[in-house]
Design goal:
The chain is mainly alpha-helical and 78 residues long. 46% of the residues lie in helices and 10% in strands. A hairpin with a 3-residue loop joins strand 1 and strand 2. GO terms for molecular function: DNA binding; DNA-binding transcription factor activity.
Length: 78
């Protein structure tokens, strides 16, 4: 019996698909962790873990005090 995909992976894959399709473009601001948690009906820790996974995949970048944005693949962050 297949196991269900972990909620944080489902969120990360959903956002990644929106980035790949062009629905979310480089420089677009993502919703806050709290807003993602409310949208996907998960705990804030789950939403935060999804953002961490996207960051690890170099799909998003965080700007302290400003928010999280879709990364620009032509300008990798150091």
């Amino acid at each position: 019996m297949p196991t269900a995909e972990a909620p944080y992976r489902r969120i990360a894959n959903d956002i990644a698909a929106k980035i790949k399709s062009g629905e979310l473009k480089p420089g677009d601001k993502l919703p806050s962790t709290r807003e993602l948690a409310e949208t996907y009906e998960v705990h804030m820790n789950t939403a935060s873990r999804a953002l961490s996974l996207l960051h690890d995949r170099d799909l998003i970048t965080g700007q302290p005090g400003r928010g999280t944005y879709v990364a620009d693949p032509t300008h990798p962050t150091p």
